[in-house]
Amino acid sequence: MKKVIFILVFSLLLGGCNSVKTEVGENYKTEAAPREVFIFAGKIQSNDSINLASKIAPTKVSKVAVNVGSKVNAGDPIVYLDTTDLDNQVKQAEAKVNTAVAGLSKVESSARPEDIAITEAKIASDNKILQNAESSYNRVKQLYDKGYDTKQNMEQVEATLIAAKNTLTSDNENLSKLKNGSTQQDIAASQASVKEAETLVDSYKSQLSNGVIKSPISGVVSICNIHEGEIAATGANLVTVVNNDELYIDGYVPEDMLSEIKIGQAVIIKPSNMPEKRFKGEISVINPMMNSNDKNVVRVTVKDESHILKTGMIAQIGFSK
């Protein structure tokens, strides 16, 4: 009797185990791993980059404050240029302004009695010099006409006479201005001289302000073509700063793949130099016009916040299926 009972219990247990095994097997199914499909490759570029160049005449670089890879903020000084020559030009131009202003002040002001007296005394001296010059001229001319003097002496006394007449004429005009006051034409000319000198100062100061080259954007230095002591040529690219917060990749997608993508779609970015890594991106532009190879230009915006991706890298774009 006991043997029959044991066989019955064993059979029930065995059947229950098979039932459980069958149920577990029916409920457990292995899910296939997602498959990556890459549709194009392209170079990582930036929407926001700047090439920094010198705006002044070629000059020596006194300091470079960055290296490739340096992080900079908008307004940071990047390259310092030697501005010794410009400093001197500013000082000289400012001295010319002071002289021009003094001249204008003199023209606009009424003459002092002592200035008139000095000019009158000078005219009296001019008259005596002219009388002596005329006397010498007449004496040499008589001798020259008779053949007793040389042509060289004749030309010399004639030049002296002309100079004496011109000096007297000029001093008489100055005396007239002192007594009658400067004309509007004289005042306008002096004002123009002041303005011209001031414009020159502003020009040199503007150039001087370009002696320190600053970055207008925040970002990372990707190129540095200049070093301390070298000559920075006007307009030549010295440093490039790239904002890696606004990266994108353009590529060509075959027409038969357009149905697989849409604007706003998340994609995978696989850089060629880091094939084991994946970064996030998003399709931001799909050009509806195909090119000559029946392909459409697609732009992917990089959504990576790690700042590992850099401009110039080649990357594949794809998605999981």
Question: What order do the helices and strands come in, and which of them pair?
Answer:
Elements: H1 2-27, E1 36-46, E2 49-53, E3 59-64, E4 71-72, E5 77-81, H2 84-108, H3 113-145, H4 151-180, H5 184-209, E6 212-214, E7 219-224, E8 231-232, E9 237-242, E10 247-254, E11 266-271, E12 279-290, E13 295-302, E14 314-320
Antiparallel strand pairs: 1-10, 1-14, 2-9, 3-5, 3-8, 4-7, 5-6, 7-9, 10-13, 11-12, 11-14, 12-13
Helix pairs in contact: 2-5, 3-4
Subcellular location: Cell envelope
Main location: other
Signal peptide: 1-22
Structure report:
Pfam families: Beta-barrel_RND_2 (PF25954), HH_YBHG (PF25881). It is a single chain. The chain is α+β, with helices and mostly antiparallel strands. The protein folds into three domains: 36-48 and 244-320, Efflux pump adaptor protein, beta barrel domain (Elongation Factor Tu (Ef-tu), domain 3), CATH 2.40.30; 49-83 and 211-242, OB fold (Dihydrolipoamide Acetyltransferase, E2P), CATH 2.40.50.100; 92-202. The protein has five helices and 14 strands. A six-stranded antiparallel beta barrel has the order 1-10-13-12-11-14. It has a four-stranded antiparallel sheet with strand order 2-9-7-4, with no helix packed on it. A four-stranded antiparallel sheet has the order 6-5-3-8, with no helix packed on it. It is rod-shaped, with a radius of gyration of 46 Å.
Write a brief caption for the model:
Residues 81-208 form the YbhG-like alpha-helical hairpin domain. By secondary structure, the chain is α+β, with helices and mostly antiparallel strands. It has 3 domains: 36-48 and 244-320, Efflux pump adaptor protein, beta barrel domain (Elongation Factor Tu (Ef-tu), domain 3), CATH 2.40.30.170; 49-83 and 211-242, Beta Barrel (OB fold (Dihydrolipoamide Acetyltransferase, E2P)), CATH 2.40.50; 92-202.
